[in-house]
Amino acid sequence: MKTVLEVENLGKHFGGITAVDGVSFQVREGEILGIIGPNGCGKSTLFNCVLGQLQPSQGEVRLDGRVVTGMRPCDLNRLGVSRTFQLLQVFPQLTVRENLILAGQEHQGSMTRRLFGRRDAGLTEAAERMIAFFKLGHLAGEKAGGLSYGQQKLLDAAMAFMAGPRLVLLDEPAGGVNLTMLALLKERLQAINAEQGATFVVIEHNMDFVMSLCTRVLVLAEGRVLAEGTPDEVRANPKVIEAYLGH
Amino acid sequence: MTGRTKTMLAALALAAGIAALVLVPLLLNRYGLYILSMWAIMSIAAIGLNLTLGYAGQVSLAQGAFVGIGAYAAAIITTQGWPLVAALVVAVALCFVIGWLLGYPALRVQHHYLAFVTLAFSTLAYLVFRNEEWLTKGIYGITGVPRPTLFGWPLAAPLRFYYFCLAALGIVFAGAWWLVRSPWGRAFMALRENPMRAMSLGVDTRRYTLMAFAIGSSLGGVAGVLYAPLVEFIDPTPFTLGLSLNLLMMVIVGGSGFLFGPLLGALISVLLPEWLRFSEGLYLIVYALFVMILLAWSPTGILGIVDRYLARRRARAASAARSAAMPEALP
Predict the structure, then answer these.
(1) In whole angstroms, what is the distance from residue B122 CA to residue B242 CA?
(2) What is the pLDDT of residue B325?
(3) pTM of the model as a whole
(4) Quick check: is B269 in a domain?
(5) Is A155 an 8 Å CB contact of chain B?
(6) Which among A51, A85, A91 has CB closest to B190?
(7) Does the beta-carbon distance from B200 to A108 stay under 8 Å?
(8) Is the residue at B220 inside a domain?
(9) Stretch 163-222 of chain B: residues touching chain A, C-beta under 8 Å
(10) Does residue B251 have a pLDDT over 90?
(11) Where are the domains of chain A?
């Protein structure tokens, strides 16, 4: 299977603190890779370094073999890489539909063409499809700030898929979401993975969610890779049990 | 109320507003027309600031300086015998470029730090207006700024010049309306609400920030180009930091991030001193109290109050609709 993302010896230091320490891993096309580890082990910093939100102190990131280390997030997004954040990141003053149109509009032609082109950048139908897919139909015209936390999480995820990305990095998508919404979110992610062949990397603390969703799991501890394998292998790994899962 | 009825009502209100702006000045004297022309010009500058601040979320205390640049461009060029349209082209281009450059600090600093950077530019511009006598004639100013002719039709009469300013305001307002409804407007709002998320969705925040500054500053220049022939004499005094603060106040009082906000804010800022003439020296105190009470009650300005009222009404209507639908859903 083709490798989409390669991270090699990636490191990030904040003064004397090492948040990420020589992490290497690969993500293969169409797989769902889970990244787990205790709080403060460097998961989100790793994401931010991979996605250009932070400049890594060392190492290299390659997308389809092309070096993209330190590339701006907007440029990476245009190469088909999308993400969600640990904390909710919707645009509260825009409606659900507008949030989704915004999430896709920058992929529609040049900046000048967008200025003189259609008001919705030709994305209303795509937004409606995404709204229906994530079962947000009754909320399409509502301002995102007025939605419940779980609904905003769904919208947040839907926005990440609006431009049809090849690789999506989801930072704690299940955090604070109730069981019904969580089941819906998992089902939708699996459907996108199966139907569109999208590749996911998921950071999550909810073990049931990770183990049932991911095909492979990477365990981080103190900024380093502690273990890597299938969910069953990771669950049975004594070092992982000791450092994170517990008995 | 259906969507169509709402659109009809909005169109009627807009038509009534335009009719009032066209017909009421027929009853006004020279001074009244001067005040209304000033309102139209300040509205244009405030619309520019509203794009930069209200929509794109970039604080600027330099809009008054751009009005000054536009005014000096108009005064210098038209007193040399060139038409006002030449001054307009020069002022817009100049303000666009300077606004673009002023946007660079916004890529590194935000909020009050950015306010200080723009404040420094405002001071710098004032010093250039005052000290570069070879160009601006310094404190003596430039006299005899002519009013333009439009297709051979002289606009020197106060009523004609007012209609000229009103038409310019109409064009600028329509342009701003079109811009904020375009994908650019959506990107500006994303920049204001969450630049980090916007960038992760492919929004080139750097380009949009610079563009927001450049477009907003250009409109300041347009206002200046109209200001010079209105007052017919230009000196540095009106373009101190006070004008920038006043424009900022117009945007905030009217409703930052609302299209009609700057028009309303400019109306209050320009007309309130006239309404409060009876209070003589107390005008500024009354104005300050009004602004303080308003912003304590509604930080989103006057139109923010209207917006909240409409949102509550919509929420009540949606809740009533859900309640009405419930019994049918039950077995």
Answers:
(1) 10
(2) 67
(3) 0.91
(4) no
(5) no
(6) A91
(7) no
(8) yes
(9) 179, 181-184, 186-187, 189-190, 193-194, 196-205, 207
(10) yes
(11) 3-245
Tens of pLDDT, residues B191-215: 999 999 999 999 999 999 999 999 9
Check CB contact under 8 Å for B189 and A94. yes
A89 touching B (Cβ < 8 Å): yes
**Which chain A residue has its CA at the smallest distance from B312's CA?**
A146
pLDDT of residue B330: 47
Indicate the DSSP class of residue B114. H
Closest approach of B199 to chain A, Cα-based (Å): 5
B197 chain-A contacts, CB cut-off 8 A: 85, 89-91
Average pLDDT for runs of 10 along chain A of length 247: 94 94 95 94 94 95 95 95 91 95 94 90 93 91 90 92 93 87 90 91 92 94 94 92 76
First to last CA, chain A: 35
* B201/A77 Cβ within 8 A: yes
- Amino acid occupying residue B188: F
E-assigned strand segments in chain A: 3-14, 17-28, 32-36, 58-63, 66-67, 81-83, 167-171, 199-203, 216-221, 224-229
| Helix or strand run (H / E) with residue B233 | strand B233-234
Q: What is the 3-state secondary structure (H, E, C) of A61-79?
A: EEECCEECCCCCHHHHHHC
Range of the domain at B181: 28-239
On the CB side of B127, CA atoms within 13 Å amount to 6
B125, part of any domain: yes
Residue B281 has pLDDT above 80, yes or no: no
Q: Are β-strands B153-154 and A58-63 bridged in parallel, bridged antiparallel, or unpaired?
A: unpaired
**Count of structural domains within chain B:** 1
* Within a domain: B4: no
Average pLDDT over residues B123-142: 96
Residue B183 C-alpha, separation from nearest chain A C-alpha, in angstroms: 6
- Angstrom distance (rounded) from CA B300 to CA B302: 7
* Residue B307 at interface with chain A, using a CB cutoff of 8 Å: no
User: What is the value of ipTM here, to two decimals?
Assistant: 0.91
What is the pLDDT confidence band of residue B329, given thresholds at 50, 70 and 90? very low
Mind telling me how many Å the CA of A119 is from chain B's nearest CA? 5
Q: Identify all chain B residues contacting A109, using CB atoms and an 8 Å cutoff.
A: none
Q: Name which CATH class applies to A3-245.
A: alpha beta
Chain A residues touching residue B190 (CB < 8 angstroms): 91, 94, 102
List, for residues B90-115, the tens digit of each pLDDT value: 999 999 999 999 999 988 888 888 99
